[in-house]
Please model this.
Amino acid sequence: MYPFQYTKAKEASEATATASRQENSKFLAGGTNLVDLIRRDVVHPDYLIDVSHLDFKTIKAYNGGLRLGAMASNSETAANKELKEAYPIVSQAILLGASAQLRNKASNGGNMLQKTRCPYFMSPPFPCNKREPGSGCSAINGENRLLSILGTSEKCIASYPSDMATALTAMDAVIQTRLSDGSERSIPVVDFHLLPEDTPWKETVLKEGELITAIDLPEESKEFAENSYYLKIRDRHSFAFALVSVAAALVMESGKITKARLVLGSVAPKPWRNREAEEMLLGQAPSENLFMEVAEKALEGAKGFGENDFKIPLAKKGIVRALRIASKSEA
Amino acid sequence: MIGEARNRMHGLDKVSGKAKYALEYEVDKPLYAIMVKSHISSGTIENIDESSIQDIPGIEMLIHSGNALKLNSTKKPSEGNPDVESEEISREPLADKKVYFAGQDIAIVVASNIEDAQLGASRLKVTYKKGEGRTDRSSVLKDYYEPRPEELQYSRGDFETAKNEADVVISEEYEIPTEHHNPMELSATTAIWDGDRLTVYDATQGVSNHQEGIARAFGLEPKNVRVIAQHIGGGFGCKGTLWPHTLLTAMAAKMTGRPVKMFLTREDMFTSVGHRPKVIQKVTLAADKNGKLEAGAHDTYSYTSKVGTFYESCGVTSAMLYDIPNFSMKHRYGRLNLPTPTYMRGPGESSGTYALEAAMDEMAEKLNMDPVEFRIINDTDRDLKKDLPFSSKHLKECYRRGAQLFGWENRNKNPGKMLKDGVLVGHGMATSTYPAHRSGGECNLTLRKDGTVLLRTATQDIGTGTYTVLGQIVADTLGVPFEKVIVEIGDSDYPKGPLSGGSQVTASAGSYVQLAAEKLRKKLGSTAIGQSESPYFQINENELQFENGKISDGSSEGENIENIVQRSGEENISVTYSTDETGAKQEEGYAYQSFGAVFVEANVDPDLGIITIPRITAVYDVGKVINRKLGNSQFYGGIIFGYGMGLLEHTKYDHGHVVNADLAEYYVPVNADINDLQVEYLDIPDYKFSSHGGRGIGEIGTTGVAAAIANAIYNATGKRIRKLPITLDKLI
Amino acid sequence: MKKEEIERKQEDLWPEEKSLIEAKISRRKFISRAILAAGGMAIAPYATLAAEAIDAPALPFEKFVEIETSINGRQMKMKLDPRTSLLNLLREQLSLTGTKLGCNQGACGACTVFIGKERINSCLTLAAQIDGQEVTTIEGIGSEEDFHPMQAAFIEHDGFQCGYCTSGQIMSAIKVVENNRAGSDDEIQEWMSGNICRCGAYKGIVAAIKTVRDGNYDKSLLKKM
Model:
């Protein structure tokens, strides 16, 4: 295993300062993804700054909404009473991810930084632009069943697997961070991940030494609680990555949809939200036809790479299903 | 005692973490070895740059072809058929710089700690000269050879003519992907030299075989090699062969002069301990309009490696399972630059019954017949290939009982028409079958002064329950309480015993152990009647009874059998019993085979293609089942293995490299996948085959399951998926 | 630890220690011999684990991490190679081999242990991260006299064959019952799906969990010999 030095940061300021000063350092929280990738010889940090114990563990009411501490575990978060009541889709999504053991260890902040499950990214003998910039993409003409159909580039077709982030995107959640100079900033989850374009190794907007401290769920999104659903379609009945997931959240008034959020997971390098598709739902009564049209729109521009062609029809059918369940319609 | 449901011997050790597996013995200052694997599929190693790892502090030694000990061939001189294996390159581990497959062992890094050994293995700079390799597994359809033995190329009657004259013909191609065993315990070895004597703790399915092979490799007397495997964390076939890592661990221990521990990583498990190869099968069936099969053909296309020969023989089952007078079977293989395939739970049978039984379903449909009835019509009491009657066959009862238990009469024979609670419901079935194998061995059985009975034989328990069933057989035959029997296996210092493979241990070891127990009982009786202080002094030996740890003449309560030992002045009374290689007490002139019928309900989401299997019912005809509780576990486990084959398992390659070499991407069944399983067995003893009437149950459970699932999915959806695994993308 | 043990003779040193000392790499304080084995070099008898430690050299790559922890109720203090996983610490240094190495990737659950009240995968947990935490392994459940009911129930329902995933299954099963995730078969199955059993003992595992949930396990199996 690649040798690294380890430091347990006493506080956030120390963590961010160390991270910005020390080249090739990484924050360590739950480690469920990072430790695996180091052992697989995929990432090679020289320094790990343990932030898991920092005081960002609480889940509390904030600004009318809910603040999820970055270091709170996925399990604790999913089980949180307020979350389950006000943002049930987030709890559902978390519980459909990984295993109970992994969720106990995985942090909310770390979940946002999950790496792709692209087999070539995880296999050092193969070229991979994300792992080794400029080496090429093995997946485009390779085994790409799990990979992206949207937001891809000629350099990378990796998909982002987080269920939690997909649901958070539907809830308009905002990531709070702390920078090394002590300043803080807010980044909507939807803007947090970058598309690969020509630089697939740049995955998020985070700067050197920038630490996720919390994820905020806004008060406005509480109104989706009644009509939301997270659909995860996978090969195994549990403990499997999504082939396609759909976060559908609606506000219904007198049989009409007045607000809509629709986000796809595991089909793109980031949670994939199509606002045009969402707008098509507004003012409409739920119907199979409407949902099918919305699905067509949501998959606009989708492109398969052979093995993953099925994701296009599957995502469409998944959208129809998720909207049907979220709208509680017989459509 | 035989047939009872007993708790597993060593259960307490297993639930408390005390049971020891290969890496868990305390050894003095061990070193850790990790394998370095080739990144190319074919070619030559130009250079291994030792300096690339020299600054890693824990590293003790790098072993590669330049400094490795030269090993002898591990094969017995008699092994191997020169006709079919002429293309095989005979090569011992690290013998030269040649590379024949991606993932081949090309060096080992030995270090004082695991982390540095792994670091060294990943950091070692190796340069290659790439050669022309062949890794495309579908290329065998065009470019193949036919191994000679009749076992693989066979025909009877006139297939072509009969097919042409038949009323109904189906001919389809079925494919299964490469699969990997993935037992939970990684293959692992601990090797310790003491002068010329070598002790190896190994995760092996055959301590006796490994002892011989290791001894041959290092030029030692077998008695100087001791292989210990008290507990093995599953095998399913991948721990049956002596793979390079075991020899390399012993080599590293010899070269460093320290005990060495090596475990394969989960990734290594996909390259270095075999696999079930991808197979393309072409099955043709021809019947008259009443459903009587007239002709059949089963052609298998698969591969083996450049450095080893293994033939997944899918057609063999088809040649005997039904009454098909005109039959043709071919097996064709390519030699590819891939790791050598090997036995995997029902090798040939699990893959072969998938194709045959899916084809049978297609035929039944084309004939507009019930799949169960169609099979009953074509049932046979004779193995037409061997031209022998079966020793004991009750397959029709399995069909009928299974159909009844399952509620087969509720099946809607029109596919895609049964919608219930929003899901498509389908019912499918298939025949299960697996041959009964047996081999010889030897054991010591000893009654000790304290009344305990000690059994020793060098077979092993890979989770199958060998400890327990051998204990039951001894207790039953000798008439002692089960708790008094101590079973010691998993050590090659004991008398030679069978490999845990081919579902043979209970029949093989179980028989010679039972005969040993009979011999010991006789010896105790004759000793007792010769002891003047014995209550049974000089009575007729035939009147003696052995029960509950007591000897009696039937009229009295009797006395504890250990009294016989105590009076003898010896520490114990002991017998040795051995059988030749064919095993004991097998009547000649029969074909030995087990059978079963498996019924599956499949639920399919009509839009999303998500498949759920709410229930599986199976009824087996496997002879006597020695332990009900453990027997059930074997069947459940076998069926779940078949579930994985049908719906999940798929090793993916890119240019000869496995690209899903982990348990997060190679899916095996999880708890949430498995719902109701209902298993029954007819429990009709087959005394023609074994002394206790059992025939072995380790593999039959897997056979037929994938086909029954595929047939149920067809019944649910109207879609014939002829390529495993059946994943939801194939149904949307 | 006694002073004479601390001042080991040169010949007692392992080769790698010697070479490092010869290379005049600064010696770091408080590293016990057992603990020097950080990457997993030696097996230290569980009972003799030192709460204090001796002088030994550092690896040139990285600092050792000093931690204090409790494992199955025993307090211990050690210095570790930061790469050491909790799993390797347990198995290779503390001889607590009941916790199993199945995939080393968090994908099988064979290595499941408790940190505090939660079950986690010890293969993906750096041992450095158990500083200040309480770890419980399969060796630490039940009591001196009795097995844990889940252990008895697994035997009764044959919730295993080869036994290799069993420790992890039992650790998970205990939490499934404790955390009220055993309401139905479906719920048990979902919450047990982080533990793979390749032998396919799932039916027995679910049955065992239900009997513990309902308190009707075979109590005669509880007593340790």
About this structure: Chain C touches chain B through 75 residues (CB under 8 Å). Helices of chain C lie at 3-6, 15-22, 33-36, 86-93, 149-156, 166-178, 185-191, 202-214. Chain C has eight helices and seven strands. The beta strands of chain C are 27-28, 56-57, 65-71, 74-80, 112-115, 118-121, 134-136.
